[in-house]
Amino acid sequence: MSSSSRALRPQANGGLQAQRSLIDALIAIVAGVALAITLVAAGFVACAAFDTPTRMLSQAFSNDADSPYTKEELVVAAVAAKQYTIDDNDRYALYTAMDAIAQSAQADGRDIPEGLNLYDVYIGASGDSQAAGSAEEDLIMAQYELSYADEEPYALTPDAISHLDDVYDVIQQVKPWLCAAAVIAYIGCIAVAFRGGRRSLGRVLTGAGAGVFAVFALLAAWVAIDFNGFFAAFHSLFFAAGTWTFSWDSLLICMYPPEFWVGMGAIWLAVTVASCVVCLIIGKLLKNRAARAA
């Protein structure tokens, strides 16, 4: 073998090693970013996947003092609106729930506007629930016909329904990406462990956990200092200006006052931070074991 051939072999090996290192780094970055997204999504799932957080927070914070409805009726409305917005977008089910609380208020002799026949408005004068449930156009036409501002305390007006629909659309668009991120995070972490061992996987876990923890700490500080500013900035990312603001005594705001959203944010924060702590602990253990084994 000539001296020139012997000189080329170390250079070739060095090139392959550099290529492998680059691939490992890219896999680790992708896995870390996907894991960070999954950690954030974990808090959202805790808030949205079950009715319990909505029921609990509505029971604690719904504004019955400025609403014609009782606390219990507002809780029913809040859970129905959550199911409509997050789960199924079933307008007939939402209207039925809204009709139930309005009939309860009317039966109790409370000050509901004269002539406000919610069964006819929400479901249809025919009383045929199957026909009403299947006729989307009729349901849309049946949206309160009382959309002027004075009726906001009594009903989810067309503007309110439109905002709930906007939220549902955003969630449906984001959901596949969140699922994809979780799958990529899982596969990516396995690939990192297989190619780089415990130390590399530990770095990914601690990096993602620490990064999300830091971002959420900053967001929590922002919320504590200026909740309204944070709330407005968050909504402006997804919704057109003017489509998500309602009067303080509207049914939607009485169901979901600012304190409700602070509580929901606290649940999101707690679950995501707990997930970050788990990643940090596991990542630290993996790195320590790799160091002892070296």
Automatic annotation (TrEMBL):
Do you know which InterPro entries this protein is assigned to? Lit
Any matching Pfam family: Lit
Q: Which UniProt keywords apply?
A: Membrane, Transmembrane, Transmembrane helix
Q: Does the keyword Transmembrane helix apply?
A: yes
Membrane-spanning segments = 25-50, 177-194, 200-223, 230-248, 260-282
Q: What is this protein called in UniProt?
A: DUF1461 domain-containing protein
